Amino acid sequence: NAGVTQTPKFQVLKTGQSMTLQCAQDMNHNSMYWYRQDPGMGLRLIYYSASEGTTDKGEVPNGYNVSRLNKREFSLRLESAAPSQTSVYFCASSPTGVGKAFFGQGTRLTVV
Amino acid sequence: AQKVTQVQTEISVVEKEDVTLDCVYETRDTTYYLFWYKQPPSGELVFLIRRNSFDEQNEISGRYSWNFQKSTSSFNFTITASQVVDSAVYFCALSFVGGGADGLTFGKGTHLIIQP
User: Fold this and answer.
1) A48: nearest CB among B4, B93, B101
2) Which of B44, B45, B46 to mutate to test the interface with A (most CBs of A within 10 A)?
3) Is B96 part of the contact surface with chain A (CB cutoff 8 Å)?
4) What is the pLDDT of residues B85-94, one digit of tens each?
5) Distance between CA atoms of residues A111 and A16, nearest Å
């Protein structure tokens, strides 16, 4: 009964370092999403993927890249981390483009 | 562009009081979904409700109720007889129907504090 699994849960990076946040879902959902949550800002969409092999920019895509590796996995990459990318990152999946979204537990990323 | 405004940033009430969280949205779409999510102190996001833009019936689930008024673009959430366990950040969100996956547009959240 895993649902949406994100790794890692916590990460500290130095400015300029790169890393990939991993996300996997076991619900056979077509749509997957990456959001970031900042204090007082709610959640903002970084990238989404409507189906395997497709990805599209959301509201705040700058500084990020994504890969929809297969139907289950959707990764988010920071090529050169900046302090402005300090945030909590949530991965989500949905059975359709507008259905109920299921969220992972979040990754708390700090860039120093 | 879509926008969701949660009127209250923070609300503090004493346990057993009723409390209403307000949500106002803007969209040019005629068909859309509205959502409420709860984020307890542990940090996960818990789905509470989804409402289709064509369905203006109010919804009640236990102590929770939702009032959707298309005429005022509002989707308000009421907790009756609040409990300490209701303390959380609550998010209202908006999506649209069709055209592929665009995700959700979230409000900035209302931090609800229930004092014993």
Assistant:
1) B101
2) B45
3) yes
4) 999 999 999 9
5) 9
